[in-house]
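Field log, afternoon session.

UNIT: design team B
ACTIVITY: writing a sequence onto a fixed backbone
BACKBONE:
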């Protein structure tokens, strides 16, 4: 892999990592809210959606790393 490709890969991986961090922060906040209102199905569903989104980003990151 040439240096330019490595740089592009690193930028993409950094972008994905930042997105996953933001998702994690949102999940923590929603989890704290859910502790106060355990029966809130909307919060539960949103947490599940965020987890799924994080898993997709994780797979994308792994795929990018494996392809180079």
């Amino acid at each position: 892999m040439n240096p330019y490709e490595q740089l592009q890969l690193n930028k993409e991986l950094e972008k994905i990592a930042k997105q996953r961090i933001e998702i994690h922060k949102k999940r923590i906040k929603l989890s704290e809210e859910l502790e106060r209102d355990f029966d809130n199905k909307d919060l539960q569903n949103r947490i599940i959606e965020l987890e799924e989104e994080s898993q997709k980003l994780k797979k994308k990151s792994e795929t990018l790393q494996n392809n180079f």
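LOG NOTE: Residues 3-36 form the longest helix (34 residues).
NEXT ACTIVITY: expression trials, pending approval
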